[in-house]
Records
---
Amino acid sequence: MTENATPTNMGSTVTQVPSPEPGTVDMMVNMGPQHPATHGVFRMELRVDGEQIQDLVPHIGYLHRGSEKLCEHESYSQIITLFDRLDYVSNFNNELVIVSAVEKLMDVAPPPRAELIRIIMCEFNRIASHLLFYGTFAIDMGAITPLLYNFRDREKIQALFESVSGARMMHNYFRVGGVKQDVADDFESRSLALCNELEYGIGETDRLLTENEIFLERTSGIGVISGEDALDWGLSGPVLRASGVPYDVRVDEPYSRYDELDFGIPVGSAGDCWDRFYVRILEARESVSIIRQAIALMEPGDTMAKIRRIARPPAGEVYAHCENPRGDLGVYIVSEGGDRPYRLKVRPPSFCNLQALRDLTVGHYIADAVVILGTLDIVLGEVDR
Amino acid sequence: MTSQGPSEGENNPSNSGAKSTSAPVKRREPEVQRAAVALPPEGLALAERLPEAFAAHKVEIGAAIDEVVCRVPADHLVDVCRQLKDDPTFGFDYLRLLTVVDYVEQDGEFEVVYHLYSMTHRHKMMVKTRLPERRPSLSSVTGVWRGADWYEREMHDLFGVEFNGHPNLVPLVLPDDFDGFPGRKNYPLNDYEEW
């Protein structure tokens, strides 16, 4: 332009027209706490440039009930009911943590049959929790169908739970030293039949989603986190394993009778949303295998250790943890003797996993933030406590 | 507790049957026992190595059931944590839990507890430090493990412990205008005012 411009003889200067630059500004978008894709009362403040996320500020605490403080004022058997309400879609796994912590402190072992009942319940609960994940995760991406199949199967698991504990959720079934009552006579045959149905159901979800082209477009390469970063953030469970770190409490610090069972730990390689999804599919299959092995080991016997009805652990402190569907759920109890803890602190896996959300989402589109949050599979009851 | 034995039996009508002649049963209070310590082999190895490695930091080594407990003065905490993470023979690359325990009624102090785990060596330990009741503050370990971020914010909300050097120590689980530290023992459980 300037080269072709003829010089003027009037002494005036030639001004260059600037090349077109969009005069856009970043926009703040608020998602939640009543947004359906935030899986509960979770709020995120997004700073977006068009559709692209520049920054994300998570806000939690809308469900903060002070559970830990409340636990200091309740006896150990009452605390079990409070733990049911932490991660309210995997109640048995929560109960196992608190009872095993008190048992560790008191140095009592539940009878072998009770341990196996616990394992079976926990693994069924893991499958139920993962089924809920597949369904809600698909809905996050606009696929309605898988949820219907998954809820059909989850309902069967909850019917089994109801026959065992009397409640579909919030079971309050585990006790310090065992379980509340023995299972019904038809429990084993019923569980085995359910295992077959679940195996089919998980396979159905797998066929519907895993290699679906749209699903792959939405999930692969989205929200990548390396194993090193995942450890630094304290992630655990399927989210950590999807990044290639083979850490599973059931294997690394075996509790209950998991050391007698043979199962694999699915580990991802890329650490993206697809890995986090597929790790959970494989994990549910391993759970089916664990249940079958545990049922084969079942023998008649007591379901409650001979201990006093009101647990009075000795003074001391204990940290016990178990592999929850969402990760490494731990509990730290400081006891000064007596029937209630002096201090109780939960290590909530969803809380830790959610911390990494900002790192995972920045640079992606808003629609991907929903997918990434879906793969973290948070339960706000546990995040906020 | 202070009432006389015989009068207690008379006041209770349901108890006036066969038992009325015998002396009232005094409730037996169990003695407070300490939980037994049983360190696993890797814990024993850790307990042996720690005093030597941290001689400069005035650490005290103890144990809680199956975990090594290392007590550190508050001003040495970050150095000890960094060495625990960076020294490949310890390799504590995973912060499991960070919490505060309120011992103000007993000792006038808060205790901050760090639960560490090593993915490479598969061993675990607790690091503890004590803070005074007035203006409890210590350095943040977010520079060592990023996962400490929300734990420290939560403990700042609930116990009022200041974590110096934390990048963003704003309320996490409590409303921004909340007054008081509800995690502390002296904060009442029930008789607070509703809004």
---
Amino acid sequence: MSGPKGPGNSSMIHRRYVFGLLLRLWVNFAGGVAILFVILYFALSRPLPGDYAGVFHALHNLSPFLRPILAVSVLVYALLACGSTSAVCVYILHKVVGPLYRMELVLDQYRSGAPTRTVSFRHDDQAQPLAQAFNLWIGTLRRDRQRWLATMMDAERHCLQDEATCRAKMEEALRKITGDMARYR
Amino acid sequence: MKTPFLKPRPGRIRYVSPRFQGPMVLAFSAIIAIGGVIFWKLVDAEFQRVFPLAAIQGHYTFGSAYDIGRDLLARHLAGLFLGVVLAGSALMLLLVAITRHGIGKAVDSLRASADGDLSTPTDTGPIGKFDRFGEHIDAARSDTFASLMKIRSETTALAAGGISPEEFRLRWDELKQRIRRIAP
């Protein structure tokens, strides 16, 4: 499974991360089943009485006796496996959800008009192309902004000459900026 | 003499998104619980059948009940493990696919924004977390687009002429301030 590729060929979610996640889950499930086996082994491995009648009665009455033991052992398995799997899920998935949460904060900050810094995630975080794409967008906007301001300031320099030239150059600059902005849709 | 106090580094918060991590934890727990219930029902039914059958057979060549139930227990434990592993892995791979799709759409949307497309919706997918994330991106793009359109209409109006020099100068300075506020 290879997802869409980002700039610099870095994938959204690394295969190594997915395999690590699956491996941890399998180990968890295997641990749960092993615990279930150990409980049932100890419940079933008690030696049967020596005489014929004793063995008959022991085996005959074993099924009702085992019913609550089986229920409790399955409950212990479920609780332990659910607990450890939940911990693994939370621990592992935060490497995907953490960057998304961080990006949400950055986007909120951007919308509020506060200065936006370049976004970078921790090296072991997934979804790295998201930060690269956001930085690319903000970088493009900043370059455009600088170009438009430079165009306006260039027009202002002509105000040292006569008023009519100044106004003409300013209007020319405005037309240039308007044309430049046409790419935004 | 004061002893230098080293402030411990704050721990990283792991439970970041209850909307995403919570349902995932519940889904995996449900798989484990359902597997456990099926195992319990099947093994209980087998125990009810196997031990009374062994009791009436009469040839007691075994030392414990484990010797009788070993094979069925091994079979059902293997079944439980395989069932839970397969269902858990399928869920995990589905989650990875949805995450890749959601993040991929968000990345595509941001790249399209860099190319000037600020109006096509991000469409990150049906999962709540990604849907909300897509809305965040779209809101930022929409704000930027509105701001750029205001600037564009102002540049068009100013370039059209017919404005007094005083008013032109005033609006020119305001326009510069407005442009400075893009991606601060």
